[in-house]
Amino acid sequence: MGTRRRKHLLFEGVAWLVVAVPIHGQTGHEFPVTGHLPSFDVASIKPSSPDNREINGGYTYPGGRVECIACTLQYLVMLALDAQYWQISGGPDWTDIARGTRYDVEAKPPETSPAVRLDNPVKKTPPSAEQRQMLQSLLADRFQLKFHIEKRTGDVYILSQGDKALKLQLPKDPAGFHWAGSPEGGAVVRGTGVAGTNISMPELAMRLSGFLRRPVVDQTGLTGTYDFEYRTGNDDPDSDVTVGIVTSLRELGLKLALGKGPVNTIVIDHVERPTSN
Questions:
Q1: Which of 80, 82, 107, 248 could form a disulfide with 194 if both were Cys (CB 3.0 to 4.6 A apart)?
Q2: CA pair distance 150, 247, nearest whole angstrom
Q3: Is residue 77 situated within a structural domain?
Q4: Are residues 207 and 236 in the same domain?
């Protein structure tokens, strides 16, 4: 099994669609957030059962409850800081997203929190900005997490409109979940093509950044959300992912090209195993 294939298999169990990547520099926001952060009212952290087949599963529920199943510290940092796994460096081996210690987390906000009024349509809805800040507080309190952001200028991808006619359709379900992945319905894109449902171009750029391990900046100028699908006809699991994505986007009327932009990294300076409940 090739290296590229092994890396992709590590993340097929991820349940949360991680959207928005503020530390890319695309939104103007930065972390860590300064000042007092909101906190969960009740939070439980315990080692995940080794028999649990789900990994890095994150869910939100009406009323603001957050649940993480078999999540590593790196994945929890991803959720709390709205980042991709390749943007996180440092930390001991037990924090690694693929091979690290996994924890089950269940947390509820205080009754005074705006999160209590959330009514998520599906449990895979990403956490709100307030819930992410609560996760930051939880990591600082229970894991003693300390980190800093290193900002550099480096290679990014620019997503724009291409030379071919756009083959993007209006969404069949405008209230449906925003998603992009493989034509087979998986969360991981390979050489087989790309597909999306009810997803905007900024959201697509953020999803592509996770597949390509590099920031993707939306410059399409397209508004609204779309459904689309393109199959390359290549079923080789070890085929080049970037080639498959570039080819698929070109046939959909989009273009992905290299450029320069902010490439920011979360560097873990200190972390400890979590304190008991």
A1: 248
A2: 32
A3: yes
A4: yes
List residues bridging with 148 in a β-sheet.
267
Contact yes or no for 138/81 (Cβ under 8 A): no
Phi, psi (degrees; rounded to nearest 5) at 257: -135, 150
- What's the domain count of the chain? 2
> Cα(99)–Cα(105) distance, rounded to whole angstroms?
18
Q: Are 31 and 164 in a shared domain?
A: no
Segment holding 114, helix H or strand E: none
**At what angle are helices 241-251 and 201-212 packed, to 10 degrees?**
160
Mean pLDDT of 147-171: 94
Phi, psi at residue 5, to the nearest 5°?
A: -65, -40
- Here the tokens at position 220 are 């399409």
Domain of residue 162, residue span: 154-262
* pTM listed for this prediction: 0.72
Question: Roughly what angle, to the nearest 10 degrees, separates helices 129-142 and 73-81?
Answer: 140
Residues 80 and 171 in one domain: no
Contact present, 214 and 161 (Cβ < 8 Å): no
pLDDT 10s digits, 165-216: 999 999 999 988 889 999 988 777 878 899 999 999 999 998 999 889 899 9
Both tokens of residue 21?
Answer: 């990547």
